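We treat protein structure as text, and this decision shapes the records that our systems exchange. The tokens are whole numbers drawn from a learned vocabulary of local backbone shapes. One such record is reproduced below, unchanged from the form in which we store it:
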Amino acid sequence: MKYLLLFLLTTTFLFGDKMITIATYNVENLFDVSKSKNRYSEYKQGSKLNWNHKNYKIKLQNIARVIKGINADIISLQEIGSLQALKDLKYVLKEFGLYYQYYKIADRKGTTVKVAILSKIPFVYNKELSINSSMRYRNILETKFTINGKDLYIFTNHWKAKSGSESMRITCAMELRYRISEIGYDKNIILVGDFNSDYEEYIKFKRKRRLNDTNGKTGINHILRTLKQTKKVKYVKYEKNNFYNLWYDANEEDRYSYIYRGKKEALDNILVSQSLIQNSGIYYKSSSIHSYKRDFLFKKNKIYRWQTTKSKPRRHKGKGYSDHLAVVGKFIVKS
């Protein structure tokens, strides 16, 4: 009986389906405390703004607390200031009991903040997609995995903020679309990150005329083709070469990762290719999409972001987390 039980446990581990958790998190300006000049002024060491080892350690621990709570197998990150900051975060996470052996930052371009990825699962490769030479555009990080013999591609994005018009986000989307066409639309592809775009941006940005320099077209909805699949995943029909935004699989009141002037927004998104909603080799687990919401991440109905004083110069208080919530989804990998 003992050997039969051992055999059953072993075969379940070797041949059973595997569930993996994938997340994305904009950590809000995680800079180290080196003397590098390539950073926002309030994060320069030795300034009157109080960005020092003590506050840096607090911020690392606070961000690690969030990531530890999520416990994702793969987590994409935005607003990482340097490779050193990513390594320091990885080290603090290990102290918290969460070990990410594999990591990568998109740092071939000298933008002030960059995207990165942490993973418990080994990479097949990483590569950076360069939008163009302008520092207004951050590189996209492409990562390939092979899990249970099945390929999975994850693209980590951080598109231009709403300080820029929609044409800038369309530029990012077009580069992404071009690369996807090279890989093949039928592949298992997940697009994650801070798109600075709502899942229904094409509706919401019409009220912001200064953004609409594209005749109503948006990067997330029109270029990535998310317009035709707007129901819960179990009711969605196949649409060739389209992407499905997982926010549609959540209750409408829960579709947010950011709060701006009291209004909830979904700037952070997870989009999946059609193969991932077809219950094939790898597929999205229905009803698993959510933003990571815990009481400690809110204060007075606002997201408890990293705190600075209101008076100038704005000094770091050594409190708070990020101005974004992490977004999490689960996927099944068949044996």
